Amino acid sequence: MTDLTASHVQSTDVVPARSRFPIHIVVFLAPALAIYTLFSIYPLVDTIRLSLYAGDETGARSFVGLQNFYTLLTDPNWSGQFWNAFTNNLIFFAIHMVVQNGIGLGLAMLLSLPRLTGGSVYRTLIFLPTMLSVVIIGFIWQLMLNPLWGIAPSLLKAVGLGSLFGPWLGQESTALLTVSLISVWQFVGIPMMLIYAALLNIPDDLLDAATVDGAGPFSVFWFVRLPLILPTLGVVSILTFVANFNAFDLIYAIKGALAGPNFSTDILGTFFYRTFFGFQLQVGSPTMGAAVATAMLVIILIGVLIYLFGVQRRLQRHTF
Amino acid sequence: MKNLHSKAFRRRAGQLLATASVVAAALAFANAASAQTLTIESWRNDDADVWNTKIIPAFNKKHPNIKVQFKADPPTEYNAALNARLAGGTAGDLITCRPFDASLDLFKKGNLVSVNDVKGLENFSDVAKSAWSTDDGKTTFCMPMASVIHGFVYNKEIFDELKLTPPKTMAEFHAVLDKIKADGKYTPIAMGTADQWEAATMGFQNIGVNYWKGEEGRKALIEGKQKFTDKPYVDAFKELASWAPYMGDGYKAQKYPDTQNLFTLGRAAIYPAGSWDVPIFRKQADFEFDAFAPPVVNAGDKCYISDHTDIAIGINAKSQNMEAAKTFLSWVASPEFAEIYANELPGFFPLSKAKVDVKDPVAAKFVGWRGTCESSIRNSYQILSRGTPNLENELWNVSAQVMNGSMKPEEAAKKAQDGLASWYEPHKK
């Protein structure tokens, strides 16, 4: 007891109270750190670890180094599917960048028109699909585009354009585009809201000043508003990128895990699903699946790094 | 001071933990003692009603001490969910077995036990057991329950209206299709390629057995004596390709439920079917329908049917109620079970040798073909779907493409063959 007290006293004497280890920082960081470690960092690291193993038919696993990645990238049976999924994913992403974010920007501009009536109604309606379940979205759109009893063929016929209709979800040439546009329809509300918020942040005096200086609406948009919302467009892009390369659910709901026809709608998410969980007679391989998941992580990481170092650092932020 | 405090705290925490674990152990023990509740894992969520109201009560009449619980996942999620539960040790006592490798894989991993010593296994033929036996046929690990048979269901009213008779040969089949198409009121064939498996299962495997002569061709493929590029297989693909003009508008985007509806709404004349469709049509179609067997290539040829072993039941190796589980399995092997199963779920045909009366006339017709034609199973299921690329997935893909017209029959055959030859020794040459 005396010993204890003595050492205690001594330590307080030597080290001034202020420079003691700042325990409160640890305390404040702990909850977030613990949760992220448990649910995010640990699974991620464990996935990477699992990707370095291979299982045999008894379920025993052995360390194989980078063999899984070697197979994934060089065995034509794997690499063909992998690059096909990657290419489709790039197209999927490109369509979202152009169509979803383009329309999102346009809608945000329209919403921020000063004399718009019922703006909040439009805003809610356009944002609504984002909150619906993907299963419902997939189901509704399949019904609408159904060649047998869908509304799309009848509508087109009603205006005399019946010959333009095709089984878009079933053709190799159009399936990916159709699924992408359905996804765009669902998520267009998100870029709209973000950009709309950024547009509202621009002070009116800037716009007024530009108008007084003789700028038309187009120049105001191009030279004043657009530069001011560029940081938001950057955020929207990176969100789209990450979401698209992790996408899975809509394709699975509409086209199933085999992502037909002829894998034309196969993206990395569905490819991963088939590999990890297996499909019909294909027995799932957790280790190979982990390798695919790690490859996806690397792809997303590269994309994010390009954005962080190539784009974000050059963006100028304006505060008013 | 501080240290002492934490020591006390640690001690208390330790006590708490000890108490908790004792309580947990006691609970687990109590659970084991009351036991005798068997849980069945299954993908047949459609059949939950039949299990709960017919099958389990019938079992309980004989074995009142064993409680049975039926727990089903949606078919597409079953394999993944079951594997996760087996790995986590929370899977049920009885496991519904998929045919061939999915279950063989479970057995090899030690998740299923051998059922060689379970009474009733002698009621099944080797073909019936083949889907749930090791490659050497010595150990069986699931008790066979039922098979499904492929054929064609047709709308009798449309056939009467157009004065058609069910075709026996491929030439007759095409004549019938042409007549329906010429009439123009009905879609000749209800089928879509959007789900892909329809094309492979109801198309390729359905008619294919007549081309590759059932078991003969299936075994020759496994032994490497035949290739997908051989005539029978290419011809089967060619036949599929010729269906395209007879299928509904936009069949490329037509899914399985669309196909079923197209037929039950009376808008299509012929439906390439699996026998499991019979109970569904019985409920939904308000017209008379009947079935004909897959037409043979030339008149007088021996006929074959795809009588596919589809469902069985095995025992979880970690089950606490091994004896009760075995009792249940021997009951599943009994004629009593076969009778209930066949009539409550017409379209799933018992595999046991016992003679069973199937009351549904269309289902009875399906099972009747067993007497006149040779049975075979789908050729991609045994052994051949073990490698990468997976043969079954490939067949789905190429069959759908052949019907979509985006691939020639010869190309489809070559793709399936190349995939198989890339990993399967007997085909590497």
Automatic annotation (TrEMBL), chain B:
Coiled-coil annotated spans: none
Recorded superkingdom: Bacteria
Pfam families in UniProt: SBP_bac_8
PROSITE patterns according to UniProt: SBP_BACTERIAL_1 (PS01037)
Transmembrane segments: none
Keywords carried by this UniProt record: Periplasm, Signal, Sugar transport, Transport
Localisation per UniProt entry: Periplasm
Cleaved signal peptide residues: 1-35
Region Disordered: start-end pairs: 408-429
Chief location of this protein within or outside the cell: periplasm
Basic and acidic residues bias: start-end ranges: 408-417
UniProt KW Protein biosynthesis keyword: no
Function: Part of a binding-protein-dependent transport system for a sugar.
Family the entry assigns: Belongs to the bacterial solute-binding protein 1 family.
Protein name stated in the entry: Probable sugar-binding periplasmic protein
Species in which this protein is naturally found: Microvirga arabica
